[in-house]
């Protein structure tokens, strides 16, 4: 009996000891180490195959891209390609590559390497979830000579340079791709960028160390003295723990602070706040034009005017987020003209509903021919969507609607509820600097045509804009027309432009983000002495 | 009494064997339920993979075919079971990595936290339970009872964030975040987790001990001159332990299958977080793999608990 117990105790003691040893494995702090808090733990971090935005935060500094985008102007500048030409029909892009670039493993960078990378991305067996689709109607990639590469397209594709400037199409060592294959390469990533990939332990940390040989950087990197030697990225998925991690000194920089926490550190002695506007489609409710009562334009207009968007944004997001005014965030390509149809005017909204035949019934619910004004609203569980949804629900109930709000826990469920088709409005937002994003959502054939819109004019404009290469002004005008059709048809209720609230320790200086908004330019970070 | 020679007399080994069979059956049921539930409620995995909306409808259906998700659900199910029998848990939809590898990577951090948490739970649970029963009328006993009620009711999300806050306030003046980080990575979560699990243990110990302290054999032991204290305590505690062991086994199986909230609050890698992300992002093979593992852990935990209870309480041996 006693022996049994001793064995049991011994096992327990051994278990505790092993646990304690694992927990105490200390991290060696280098000379200049910056610790960076990520907010979401990606399911996979090979940028060529996985779609997460979070992975780009560290890995944008591991890879160089053929072209880079100026963080201020959005202009494309040379990267691994020193120059490029586009054929008159927009179907062929020819890139002349730099001669002086080597990967972190010593492999020379050349045209063959570029071809290998694109083959890796486009190989259907590798199941690329993002990069492959960023290439649009790509038909072939060809090494013309050792330092010239030609991409051929089936149709002109205006977003191509935007795609090529992102980490998802960053250049990886062909040797490493070959050696590790699609399942394991994510743990052994090798690029040509200013930082080398050191180690990745899922859900725990990812670390980078400076590449001392890096002297082929694009003009957007300022490269003054005193670059940070190494970075360690850790994951803080629970929003309540992020500010604590910053204040407790466990991270120097952390993104996605809740607005209330952000207000606490703004302008404090030790920490500061950097709100970063993210381009893309704002948080919005998309109306289902195929389901009554939102199939009626007048109802949609009334529902938009019945919501005080400015006060909702202030309530949920503090003073940091701009109120959205159109289908694209205001810093995107299309500066949406102000539209009086969006202004909050409850009386006008009631008037429109009345004219459309919706009369106030018993208990305040409006009826038309005995049918109540019932609305099914679906919102995602993330990004403060449920809070926004509740406030909109209250506003619409005040107009005399019966609202049923459903929160979808994941994107898969959101899509499923959308596919069922009996919703009236669905909340969503996307990220990206190129306005071609709108094609998936507002083209009648789009994979995400959740408004059910089928508008010849929209289809034509979106197709034309996607194919307008080399003439940014014309393209901008096309998207302005797209935007005004979306507003005239009252397809969406725009809520807020996305802003990433970054908190940082004041010992970190020079924090700057790419044109896409999410990705920091790590090489230009400095530590104060 | 001599058993009839033609009658099969099941010994402890047969009981264990029966338990294993039951466990396998449970695992199969759990897997099948998860398989169906994830496909009915989990949403479209392809939609998850393409959440950014960049693919065309053709590209989306190509990806669906490449991942074998265009096949009827029964074909997928049989295919999955077939793999399972061969010990193949499949590959992650997101990374093409073997599910067994993905899960294997999370076992060490989960096991470390679970074993540390379990020790804490047992220590706190026993101390609180014994104190509450032994000193039931004194203030210390009442405090112990209160503490165990708190442990039962306070959610880990609250105690976790509070403990981080407390720690960062207490050590704000002291530089050297490394020390703090180490404390936060295991000791603190183990305490938070252990405290949460200790409530039930404390309650069982308290009721069991109170009951046996009133039994005549305790009075008899006192009368025989057994010293009041550790030996008498052991005397009274032993019969109260089997239910505690069952509960501990349940808690242990729960802890070893991963603890979502604790892992998230303390930013620790582990099976719980992996399970939740896999479900939310529609990575079915990984989620199913964790369920298979959890079902096996639960079964193993129960068998272990039965054996331990047999070792501690001889009366139970007659029941088999």
Helix/strand-derived category of chain B reads mainly alpha
E-strand count of chain A? 23
C-alpha-based Rg of chain A, rounded: 26 Å
Low-confidence stretches of chain A: 1-30
Say what oligomer this is: heterodimer
- Taken as a percent bin, the fraction of beta residues of chain A is 15-25%
| Largest contact between chains | A-B, 71 and 80 residues
Distance between the termini of chain B: 16 Å
Radius of gyration of chain B (Å): 25 Å
As a percent range, the share of helical residues of chain A equals 25-40%
Any key phrases for this structure?
heterodimer, A: 529 residues, alpha+beta, seven-stranded mixed beta sheet, five-stranded mixed beta sheet, 22% strand, globular, disordered N terminus, B: 320 residues, mainly alpha, 14 helices
Summarize the structure in short.
Chain A is an alpha+beta fold and 529 residues long. Chain A is 30% helix and 22% strand.
What does it look like?
The complex is a heterodimer of chains A (529) and B (320). By secondary structure, chain A is of the alpha+beta class. Helices cover 30% and strands 22% of the residues of chain A. In chain A, a hairpin with a 2-residue loop joins strand 6 (138-145) and strand 7 (148-153). In chain A, helix 9 (297-305) packs antiparallel against helix 11 and helix 15 runs antiparallel to helix 16. The radius of gyration of chain A is 26 Å and the shape is globular. Helices cover 74% and strands 0% of the residues of chain B. Chain B starts with 11 loop residues before the first helix and ends in an 8-residue tail after the last helix. Chain B has 320 residues and is mostly helical. Chain B has helices spanning 12-41, 45-49, 57-66, 73-85, 99-134, 139-153, 156-170, 177-213, 216-223, 230-237, 241-256, 260-265, 271-280, 284-312. Classes of the chains: A alpha+beta (529), B mainly alpha (320). Chains A and B meet through helix 1, helix 4, helix 6, helix 7 and helix 13 of A and helix 2, helix 3, helix 5, helix 7 and helix 8 of B.
């Amino acid at each position: 009996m006693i022996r049994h117990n001793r064995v049991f105790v011994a096992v327990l003691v051994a278990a505790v000891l092993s646990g304690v040893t694992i927990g105490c494995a200390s991290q060696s702090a280098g000379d200049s180490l910056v610790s960076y808090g990520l907010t979401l733990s990606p399911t996979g971090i090979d940028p060529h195959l996985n779609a997460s935005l979070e992975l780009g935060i560290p890995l944008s500094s591991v890879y160089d891209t053929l072209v880079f985008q100026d963080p201020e102007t959005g202009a494309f500048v040379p990267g691994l390609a020193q120059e490029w030409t586009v054929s008159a029909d927009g179907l062929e892009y020819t890139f002349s590559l730099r001669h002086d670039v080597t990967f972190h493993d010593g492999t020379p960078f050349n045209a063959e390497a570029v071809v290998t990378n694109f083959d890796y991305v486009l190989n259907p067996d590798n199941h690329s979830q993002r990069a492959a689709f960023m290439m649009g109607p790509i038909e072939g990639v060809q090494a013309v000579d050792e330092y010239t590469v030609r991409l051929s397209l089936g149709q002109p594709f205006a977003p191509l340079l935007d795609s090529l400037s992102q980490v998802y199409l960053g250049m990886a060592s062909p040797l490493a791709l070959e050696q590790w294959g699609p399942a394991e390469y994510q743990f052994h990533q090798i690029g040509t960028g200013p930082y080398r990939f050191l180690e990745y332990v899922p859900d725990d940390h990812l670390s980078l160390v400076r590449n001392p040989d890096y002297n082929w950087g694009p003009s957007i990197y300022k490269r003054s003295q005193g670059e940070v030697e190494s970075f360690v990225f850790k994951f803080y998925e629970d929003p309540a723990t992020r500010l604590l991690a910053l204040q407790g000194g466990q991270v120097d920089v952390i993104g996605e602070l809740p607005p209330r926490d952000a207000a606490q550190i703004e302008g404090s002695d030790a920490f500061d706040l950097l709100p970063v506007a993210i381009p893309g489609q704002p948080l919005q409710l998309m109306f289902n034009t195929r389901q009554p009562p939102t199939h009626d334009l007048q109802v949609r207009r009334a529902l938009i005017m019945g919501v005080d968007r400015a006060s909702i944004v202030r309530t949920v997001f503090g003073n940091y987020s701009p109120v959205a005014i159109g289908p694209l965030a205001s810093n995107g390509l299309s500066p949406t003209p102000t539209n009086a149809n969006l202004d909050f005017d409850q009386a006008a909204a009631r008037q429109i509903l009345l004219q459309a035949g919706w009369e106030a019934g018993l208990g305040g619910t409006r009826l038309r021919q005995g049918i109540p004004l019932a609305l099914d609203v679906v919102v995602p569980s993330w990004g403060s969507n449920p809070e926004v949804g509740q406030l909109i629900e209250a506003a619409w109930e005040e107009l005399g609607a019966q609202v049923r709000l459903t929160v979808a826990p994941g994107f898969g469920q959101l899509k499923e509820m959308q596919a069922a088709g009996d919703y009236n409005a669905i909340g969503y937002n996307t990220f990206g600097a190129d306005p071609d994003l709108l094609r998936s959502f507002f083209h009648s054939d789009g994979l995400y045509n959740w408004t059910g819109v089928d508008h010849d004019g929209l289809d034509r404009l979106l197709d034309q804009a996607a194919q307008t290469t080399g003439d940014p002004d014309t393209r901008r005008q096309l998207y302005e027309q797209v935007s005004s059709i979306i507003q005239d048809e009252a397809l969406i209720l725009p809520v807020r432009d996305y802003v990433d609230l970054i908190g940082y320790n004041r010992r970190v200086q020079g924090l700057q983000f790419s044109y896409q908004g999410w990705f920091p330019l790590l090489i230009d970070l400095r530590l104060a002495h | 009494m001599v058993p009839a020679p033609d009658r099969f007399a099941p010994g402890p080994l047969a009981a264990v064997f029966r338990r294993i069979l039951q466990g396998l059956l449970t695992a199969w049921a759990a897997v099948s339920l998860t398989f169906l539930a994830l496909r009915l409620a989990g949403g479209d995995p392809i939609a998850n993979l393409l959440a950014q909306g960049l693919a065309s409808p053709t590209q989306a259906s190509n990806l669906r075919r490449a991942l074998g998700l265009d096949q009827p659900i029964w074909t997928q199910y049989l295919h999955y079971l077939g793999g399972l029998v061969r010990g193949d848990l499949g590959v992650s939809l997101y990374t093409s990595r073997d599910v067994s590898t993905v899960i294997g990577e999370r076992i060490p951090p989960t096991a470390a936290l679970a074993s540390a948490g379990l020790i804490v739970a047992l220590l706190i649970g026993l101390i609180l339970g014994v104190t509450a029963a032994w000193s039931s009328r004194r203030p210390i006993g009442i405090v112990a009872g209160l503490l165990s009620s708190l442990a039962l009711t306070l959610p880990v999300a609250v105690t976790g964030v509070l403990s981080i806050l407390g720690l960062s306030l207490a050590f704000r003046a002291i530089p050297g975040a490394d020390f703090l980080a180490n404390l936060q990575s295991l000791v603190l979560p183990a305490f938070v987790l252990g405290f949460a699990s200790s409530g039930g243990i404390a309650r069982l110990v308290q009721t069991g001990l109170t009951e046996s302290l009133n039994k005549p054999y305790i009075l008899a032991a006192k009368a025989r001159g057994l010293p009041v204290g550790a030996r008498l305590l052991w005397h009274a505690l032993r019969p109260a332990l089997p239910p505690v062991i069952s509960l501990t086994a349940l808690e242990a199986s729960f802890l070893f299958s991963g603890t979502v909230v604790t892992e998230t609050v303390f930013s620790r890698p582990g099976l719980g977080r992996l399970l939740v992300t896999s479900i939310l992002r529609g990575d079915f093979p990984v989620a199913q793999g964790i369920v298979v593992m959890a079902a096996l852990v639960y079964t193993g935990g129960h068998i272990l608990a039965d054996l331990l209870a047999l070792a501690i309480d001889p009366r139970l041996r007659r029941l088999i």
